[in-house]
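Teaching soon. Invent one.


***
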Amino acid sequence: MPRLLHPDSPLPTALVPLALAAALATSSARAQAQPQAVSPADRTSLEGSSFTHFPLGRPNARFQFLHQDLPAGFALHGHAFRRDAAQVRGVVDGFAAELEVSLSMSPRTPATASATFSDNAGAATVVLPRTTLVFPATARPQLDPATSFDLIVPYALPFVLPPGGGTLCVDTVMFANVSSAGVDRSLSIYLDSHEISTTTNEQAGFRTGSGCAALGSTTPATATMALRHLGSALQLDVAARNGVPNRGNGLSYSYLAFGVGQVTSPWPFRPACVLQTSTEHWFVLGQNDAVGTCDASLQWPMLPSGYRVYLQAGSIELGTSDLVFSDLTQMMTPPAAPLTLPAARIAASTNRASLTGAVSTAVPVTLFF
């Protein structure tokens, strides 16, 4: 691996694995043994609604993250991020990044976060002086969410939240990175992230398996789904693609199979098309267009939070044997949206010297230990 091209870097990159192996192993063990807290807290056992490359994937950047949902009096020894499970498949390569982390108690809340960095920070403690950390390659988890937070940022100094609690400001400055892509690249590292709202709470679907193709086509049917807690009902949004096309007769329709378990059941007259959900309920989504596309939304009565369901879209041309199933989507039912914002992000993603950044409620799901 090439050396970081910064003469004042604390360590040559080639020496980082040897120098930090023991420290990271200790941090990992500590993270398992000590009290832990996840922010946003409702993502502890739920996948976030999206992914992000902030903060670790940028070589010249400054980020602040405001967290208001951590326990009062909590002693922090580090934080960690987990791999996105729902959005992206495959392996993300490991990399080394040079960074510095400061913590303070913010005079602001996530709801009043300022675009000016100095407005959000209190009396800061540098818990991780400028150093280089090595982050491992990550594979897509077998199920959502990832069971471990593998991208660990250990602190050199602990930081204790006050007994009365408050808003923690995590100030991260990124100086450089090295990866298989080269030196100081904007890296796509796919950390689990959640877009926070006080009106709706979105849950992304975890897609597995594969669909089958309509007659005369070689492209399997797919479906992307998101489930939203609206306060008084649940809304499922479905984007079905490559279904049975409407051939001008208006007889091609999409449907949704809803189940509480996973099965493997080839369809009798189309054995290449496999039903993968136990199918307690069927829903009609609507008519397909000329390329087999159907976008639809369904509203359901409330289901308990954390309830896993198995969903599969499909389509059929009435009066013929043309039928397809999409890939399978597993999904956990989300809780209601929070009454107040638990976290926020301020990002200057291309200039660490910037005095200001863009404010957003899209934050990486973060484990503090």
Notes: The chain has two domains: 13-25+36-198+338-368, 201-332. The first strand starts at residue 37 and ends at 39.
